[in-house]
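step 4 of 6: structure.
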Amino acid sequence: MDFTTDETTREYQARLTEFMENHVYPAEAVHHEQLAAAPESWSAPPVLEGLKAEAREAGLWNLFLPDPRYGAGLSNLQYAPLAEITGRSPAIAPEALNCAAPDTGNMELLAEFGSEEQKDRWLKPLLEGEIRSAFCMTEPDVASSDAGNIATRIERDGDHYVINGRKWWSSGAMNPNCAIFIVMGQTDPDADRHQRQSMVLVPRDTPGVHVKRGMTVFGYTDSAHGGHAEIEFRDVRVPVANVVGGQGKGFAIAQARLGPGRIHHCMRLIGMAERALELLCRRAVDRVAFGKPLADQGVVQEWIAESRVRIEQARLLVLKTAWLMDTVGNRGAHTEIQAIKIATPLMAEWVVDKAIQAHGGAGISQDFPLAQLWVQARLLRFADGPDEVHRMSLARRELKPYRAR
Amino acid sequence: MDFTTDETTREYQARLTEFMENHVYPAEAVHHEQLAAAPESWSAPPVLEGLKAEAREAGLWNLFLPDPRYGAGLSNLQYAPLAEITGRSPAIAPEALNCAAPDTGNMELLAEFGSEEQKDRWLKPLLEGEIRSAFCMTEPDVASSDAGNIATRIERDGDHYVINGRKWWSSGAMNPNCAIFIVMGQTDPDADRHQRQSMVLVPRDTPGVHVKRGMTVFGYTDSAHGGHAEIEFRDVRVPVANVVGGQGKGFAIAQARLGPGRIHHCMRLIGMAERALELLCRRAVDRVAFGKPLADQGVVQEWIAESRVRIEQARLLVLKTAWLMDTVGNRGAHTEIQAIKIATPLMAEWVVDKAIQAHGGAGISQDFPLAQLWVQARLLRFADGPDEVHRMSLARRELKPYRAR
Amino acid sequence: MDFTTDETTREYQARLTEFMENHVYPAEAVHHEQLAAAPESWSAPPVLEGLKAEAREAGLWNLFLPDPRYGAGLSNLQYAPLAEITGRSPAIAPEALNCAAPDTGNMELLAEFGSEEQKDRWLKPLLEGEIRSAFCMTEPDVASSDAGNIATRIERDGDHYVINGRKWWSSGAMNPNCAIFIVMGQTDPDADRHQRQSMVLVPRDTPGVHVKRGMTVFGYTDSAHGGHAEIEFRDVRVPVANVVGGQGKGFAIAQARLGPGRIHHCMRLIGMAERALELLCRRAVDRVAFGKPLADQGVVQEWIAESRVRIEQARLLVLKTAWLMDTVGNRGAHTEIQAIKIATPLMAEWVVDKAIQAHGGAGISQDFPLAQLWVQARLLRFADGPDEVHRMSLARRELKPYRAR
Amino acid sequence: MDFTTDETTREYQARLTEFMENHVYPAEAVHHEQLAAAPESWSAPPVLEGLKAEAREAGLWNLFLPDPRYGAGLSNLQYAPLAEITGRSPAIAPEALNCAAPDTGNMELLAEFGSEEQKDRWLKPLLEGEIRSAFCMTEPDVASSDAGNIATRIERDGDHYVINGRKWWSSGAMNPNCAIFIVMGQTDPDADRHQRQSMVLVPRDTPGVHVKRGMTVFGYTDSAHGGHAEIEFRDVRVPVANVVGGQGKGFAIAQARLGPGRIHHCMRLIGMAERALELLCRRAVDRVAFGKPLADQGVVQEWIAESRVRIEQARLLVLKTAWLMDTVGNRGAHTEIQAIKIATPLMAEWVVDKAIQAHGGAGISQDFPLAQLWVQARLLRFADGPDEVHRMSLARRELKPYRAR
């Protein structure tokens, strides 16, 4: 066992940290202003384009993609500390590096399961950062954490599929530049539970696609990221060639996609928690109440120490999970992926909450990133499956050897 | 000891519940739409005016004011269960009954400490619901939970006071109809700590008053309530007669104002928690996941039971505090007011969090009131003094008899 | 609603407080020494007898019994604050007043359901404090929180019942002076679920009764209270007249017995928490670490404030529950009894834990009552039904109106 | 970074696991009976001697000592997973392998700071497991977590030191075979804060040494481990040569001793938590309540999953800390040692508490090791420094870079 970070990663960390300090942090205020000036545009504020160019030039592009044909060729373990750093400025850094969800998951999906034609048409511009994409899985009318509940119908009609259904929380889809939707639905309702669903590619401009509204997240629209759309699919027709990985493979692909997606979220959450702890410490030394700085008050010290203790533990579990994914594969790391999905958002939520409390009103306002960091942590307690479902599943695995007896 | 609700209160409860069912709950969707249609108006959506008229006609007006010359003449103990009911629809009901903060505290303040002229000019239209008011205390640059830190200067210059300073979180002040600001600042910087501050009335249209922007609260502008303004006072001149209760009385008046203000918040929080628990239960029986309704799943049952247990305890402490305020006065109930200020927001935050989790994405979106309920509970963990300050103060009182030995 | 304590209760409170100060607290050290000197006697230390005589003389005897023919004739609401006071010295005070479990529950049971002959033979000496009794319900081999699981067989054989089975956690039964066991078992295995069990009186000296060992509670034997026995019943024969309240009434009687039993525990837990908080405060002002008393350290202040806040809430819920039992009966107060059974042990456990932490090693040792207070609170998180069962049941009630729709 | 366990460690793990299964677990019941039969002997039950011989033969002896001249020569990182395994049976395994506290810390101390004569006389028989030792630091009258408070006087008088003072929680010292006490006290009260104390070796049979009583730990005497003694030192004279590492080195040696001591405790706590989780799972599949096994009930599943998540995180932090101690030294790992000292006992306490709850009465009784496991975890929340002190210190380090600005 060896906890040393490897040379490649350290070099990337240094380069990325420099990029954050020279480009990303200074852009935060600009990003904020541009966003406030055009709240309904649903596109990334203009400052992003420059940052993307800078990142690309700095060799910080598509770091998430382990396949060297498409991306940086880093392992999960190497990417983890980098994703963490981008999590420190989650509104800007991931997208600047073309490493933002849901595009990352969608690119992985296309790289792994897409046909050559699909790759040419959609993966290529995504890798270039020219278009964006959405993943349409969650539905308003059913508990979507149980994939078996998905009700959207995708029916074969000659050379086409005809799609009917309603999706929501399709993140990014409000962005007019979001050109392609990956839609999950039932093609084979009578097949085995895990063979019923398929994924099909639906270009945004296909007739029958109705992007209806953006869902708000607490009071945020997340417009810079293209929001979270409710979309209606009414008799939407796409060629049969648009199916990804074959009919009936929807569930398997979804599982394959979610593992890396979940760990990326967790990596960034570590960075969000670190950013919040940094803000907490700064506030603590600056702010005087009742005759002494917050930094000298026992309760605030307890928050800081406890934050450090929790962050360290979560980070190590994320790193070990990344290492497992690299060494035994995503399936072999299934339990650990669930474990970090349970532990990390709760940890980040706790740390950010304390940072908010030390900031008082400022902490929940637009003047600090804390409220938005908190919302992202909170969101991840149910996005990609609620804590309760992961706990149930993890417990079943833990109990298995005892039942067998 | 007797836990029976008295006849008067029961009668009001019945009347108010009917009003909620017939008028308030049905108005929630309309309110929401009107708000969405005019997000920058900073005024209450038009539907409110009709509700105010209905409430007045139903004898549900100014219930919070114990002085029968001005309001319903109810005791705190009688008002508590009614405020709780309004808390179930906090975006609409309190204002519909002219019982919304910060106007309630400002009306009490004027009723108790205002001159006859001040009452005529400002209290009267407030009691009629014709204008709204703001309380300008918190400042961006200091820990305002320690009133000694307040830095705004109010200098005597002949027959006038000249005000210079910056305030924020002046709730309601973005509303153009918010006509009067009660501003706290230092008049006597060299006096004893608790005699330094005064409160002066500043009409909104006084030269030098600059309402600069609305602070956001986890993404919400709270525009329906007039937002939370940052205000700059630059050489603002008001006549000496605008001081409330005499120069140097600022701290004493603030203390007097905050007691009822805090309990009103706590009363409404009980109602918010009840509303969230109701939504949680409804969701639990409606939503099926993994083969059975959430209502039959142990973890959700635990949330529901624990919510009930926590709500009941907090409500009883709020009621006892109200009774103490009625029987031994606000000062005599000081410790209990701190206790409910610590306990109730945390309780409500916990309950609403569970209701959100059971709703998944819907719970944090605009489709349910839950995210906004949560934000209000969270906000009250530091508004009117953070939990930590109340705990410190409460502990000192508890320790006093032991130190004396 | 009125939170004033009535005259009768206040007079008892004053008298009991005096008794605690003059007799009970001074006896704690003696009690401790006598216990240490004879750890295997399983009887109350000799000092108890004197205290019992004093209590009786002071009119502080059998306060728990609402029926004036047998006890003080106090309502539950009147008894609650008195039981709380006895909880401050739980090793001594309840027994000194003849108000200790399980005798209290057994006396209530005999008073309500016993035949005249049963009352004469067993209730009378119990009321006089001459003998002690045990309640044999929990079994080692089944989850006894589900009464339907109880497996002990009680078979009719002519004029006798023949009992076979194994019980444990029969509190008090190790005491040689514990003369009578109330045994619950199945008489009618084929009857309806709630008509299967009966309760029979089994004198300790009946052939076939084997008191096998005392269970330890963490490291305590609770020998002063007669321990917690494991008992084997092997072909134990008792006359048919020994059944209590009729064959098949076991479940109903158990339910009737458990309501008051649970609230008595909760009342005393409030007192235990108050004692712990008092010890915490004393320690905090006395102990200096890192240059200042614990009382001036923020984290300890937080413990103290939070303890006060939690105690107050739990006490009010216990008092309201007592009032409900007095006004609408034990069945009407069912939900509230569950609520206090969930809330109070957890609260007390939390408060005592903090007091222990402030005492360091002393806190878990024989030099302070804290470790033993903690163990009693912990024990009550599953004794008389684990929290989880109460939460499940309470949730079902809460959900009922929503399911009906 | 690489999470693979090295070959040496894996080989030891396999051998130790076999030893646990063949010798230790089967001995638990015997140990228990022997202990119950002679509760006042204060010595290890006879079964231990055989196990020690077996362990020695199996090459599982003095594994904790990194110096190959004395022990197995394992690094901290290699020893950690082995200490974890011994933690699964903490009453037996550590002592069977001669790896039990406080002897381990005392042996390390003598190996590092002892003179050749001291090593010959005391280290040798300790390494052989022939005698035992105690570490006398904590005092009843002061907050000993602040070493500056230590009040025992060690005064030079010619060629001797004269010791006067009172110690308690000297673990192991009730055992008649505990031959040597390492006593910390003030030799130079006027020196700098960290040069005031020295450590001297005091043979048990020195005149003036009064071993007064064993402290209880939640009712347990820990007699198998020699209890926790209160010791009075009255004019105890020892030769000057008995000082360890030089006069005035007490604080430095204590710091050096506590680092490894703390991590050993944490390693074993991981094993205790694993044992508790195993018992929880076994119980969950065996026990039926309300119609289904506990294993199928949501709340119990949540406990199991959450236990797994917490154990994994704590283990990784312990392992990383061990690695840091190996690579950058105990001082370089200071913050991490504090972090695991805060995190691990709380984690273990939580897991064991849940296992207890699933066992009901059995869980707190002598029939399962759970209550005793819990007590050890609880004890470690303040032994070797309370959580609060570690948090304060850790927070100061975290804040340092921000203050510098």
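step 5 of 6: annotate
 - Chain C touches chain D through 47 residues (CB under 8 Å).
 - Chain C has a mean pLDDT of 95.
step 6 of 6: archive
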